[in-house]
Amino acid sequence: MTTSAQNDFLTRTSPGTPIGELFRRYWIPALLSEELTEADSPPVRLKLLSERLLAFRDTQGRLGVIDEFCAHRGVSLWFGRNEESGLRCPYHGWKYDVTGQCVEVPSEPEQSGFCSRIKLKSYPCVELGDVIWVYMGPPERQPPLPAFEWTQVAHSRRHVSKRLQECNYLQAMEGGIDSAHVSFLHRHDLRSDSLHAGAGAELTRETDARFEVVETKGGMIIGVRRSAPEGRLYWRITQWVMPFHTMIPPYGDNALNGHAWVPIDDESCMTWCFTHHPTRALSEHELGVMRAGGGIHVKLIPGSFRPVINKDNDYMIDRAAQRAGKTYCGVAGIAMQDAAIQEGMGPIQDRAKENLVSTDNGVIMARIRLRKAAIAAADGRQPDGIDPATHAVRSASIVLPDNVSFIDAAAEALRVREGVAHTSV
Ligand code: FES
Ligand SMILES: [Fe+2]
Fold first, then answer.
1. What pLDDT, in 10s, does the model give residues 132-180?
2. Whose CA, among 1, 8, 196, 331, lies 20 to 30 Å from 21?
3. Residues 383-396 as b or e (16 or more Cβ within 10 Å = b)
4. What gap in Å lies between CA 26 and CA 15, rounded to an integer?
5. Using CA atoms, how far apart are residues 419 and 229, in angstroms rounded to an integer?
6. Which strands, in side-by-side order, build the sheet including 131-135?
7. 34-38, 82-86, 178-182, range with the lowest pLDDT
8. For the chain, percent of residues with pLDDT exceeding 70
């Protein structure tokens, strides 16, 4: 059982909170590369772990992530002029470079050295896998770069999107860990969504799923088995890599999918959606479906990252489709079904009121691991999931005889093997 105090501990991520400080020890997906492609392009607002930041690319093409607000009198530098190797505040002309260093204060004589004493907060950032990542932790603790397989494959083998989710990161991430819900919430979509073609009949049977959770160095593996023909077992195996990465078990010949659940603040998060294939380019058909909001991706309101289907329109719920068995919960699309039910819990789910069962073992383990890692980080130890070797893992779906340990039998399938496709049935 999770108490209110434990719930607070796990869900708060602003500076100084245990989980907030933990998350600041990792590289965090912050922006799509396509949001900041050109030198001197408009700066982009960025809120991460409750900190309001601004990202921009200067005249030389260098990326900077700095405090959103001018050190003079707090104007948002989003209004700034991005030109001549820096961002100039439009109020009184103070100018900053990509490191947040103030390089010009027009009202003060240059020889006074005033501006050299003014520096905005700034964070290191790096571009990897069509994503701009930010590191917000202590400089002496900056970890090596992430090594998730989707970040390592050629651009043509990958599709990345992100969407605003209007609830705390934890309930969103717990949806990514809990694959028991697939047999219910997504039941009818597994038949109709072309990027989920191949999902077996086993998956839509609801009663016989059994869960096994195995802790790993970087997080955990969640194996869910359902009975398959000839006395064998159909295993769907999810990876969770600390602190907020999940990898969905694949369906048939489809590409691999994963998420990162990144807190914007305590009541909203950015749901990052990664699709990649280890050995081939994504097809025009696959890309077309994803760009139109299929698979794990969603259709967004143009110019924003807010889904077209959102809480203001009651997720466009279609009760007739629900009754007719076209969708299980009345919301269209797998990703928005997840988002709708998670947002519907309220901005921060009250876990003190839960009644957990055996299919929640993955969720329980993730909470324990996060808590332990936050305590380790506060003690000056290195939390799990920082070592890039722990990122080189895959999800899998596999049929096995009923008398073997899935973790042994699927060991090869669960790690990245360059040039070898993922294991999926
Ligand atoms: S508030 Fe930015 S220059 Fe005055
Ligand atoms: Fe789901």
1. 999 999 999 999 999 999 999 999 999 999 999 999 999 999 999 998 8
2. 1
3. bbbbebebbbbbbb
4. 14
5. 31
6. 27-32, 131-135, 125-128
7. 178-182
8. 96
Q: Are 165 and 158 in contact (CB under 8 A)?
A: no
412 CA to centre of ligand 2 in angstroms: 26
For ligand 1, atom 3, which residue shows the shortest CA distance?
92
Closest atom, ligand 1, to C-alpha of 93: 3
Query: What angle do the packed helices 169-177 and 4-11 form, to 10 degrees?
Result: 90
Q: CB count, 10 Å around CB of 252?
A: 13
Q: How far apart are CA 333 and CA 317, in angstroms?
A: 11
- Of all protein residues, the one whose alpha carbon is nearest to atom 1 of ligand 1 is 73
pLDDT at 198 over 70: no
Q: How many whole angstroms separate alpha carbon 9 and alpha carbon 324? A: 42
β-sheet bridge partners, residue 399: 234
pTM greater than the 0.70 cutoff: yes
Ligand 1: atom nearest CA of 74 is: 1
Q: Ligand 1 centroid vs 40 CA: distance in angstroms? A: 20
Please work out whether the CB of residue 73 comes within 6 Å of at least one atom of ligand 1: yes
